[in-house]
Design a protein that fits this description.
This protein has 234 residues and is an all-alpha fold. It has helices spanning 15-26, 29-58, 66-94, 100-121, 142-170, 175-196, 202-225. It has a single domain (38-233), classed as Growth Hormone, Chain: A (Up-down Bundle).
Length: 234
Amino acid sequence: MPEPANGVGQPKKKPLKMIKSMFQLMFTKRMLCMAFVFAYVGVELSFWSGVYSTCISNTDKIGDNPKAIVALTAICEGLGLFTSGALIRIVSTKLKSIPKSMIVFAGMIIHLIVYTFIFLNLPNQSPLDKTPDHGIFKEPSVALVLICGYFLGFGDSCWNTQIYSFLIAEYPDKSAQAFSIYKFFHAMVTCAAFFWSKYIQLQWHFIILCATAIWGCFCFFVAESSEKTEFRKM
């Protein structure tokens, strides 16, 4: 008699065997490449979910009611996540030949543009303290703050939908291990990013975000195009 399935066509495994299998998968070349992708998603999550709202509320010249602007920005981020997910769903259904890496590349370009406008619009000191300063632009633009919030969410959805799709498609028999690795790196880097955000100015956030976005996109290209046989041998 075959053993009952645990999940989608996956036999039950003892916890120690699952942990061993997870570490074996973690140290394959492909998953090590994806670790940098997971790390970037953790960095950008900490920025749009925490640091960006702090920058807005600490900028005195942003308006008379910065808390209301923070709330509107959060709504815009949510709209960006929703519309991006819906658009990707429609496009991927009609054009199934589009590589996942191209959607990730689009998400990277969107994020790089958004980070640039945030850096130009808000003062360097805004992640740390209340400040009467302005960014490179003479006056902070509320409209630009909201637009950037929308596209932060839009770009985040481009990355996350393709990460989930990649892990499900490429590791059908090891999905639990693959998602455990994803959550490990994602949570670890998000935690680290929230920690260092208390000590660095906006310009350093800008540099870290841009560098990790470019490297993460490159690693996704490498992972998607690499050989698919190494994890199947485990």
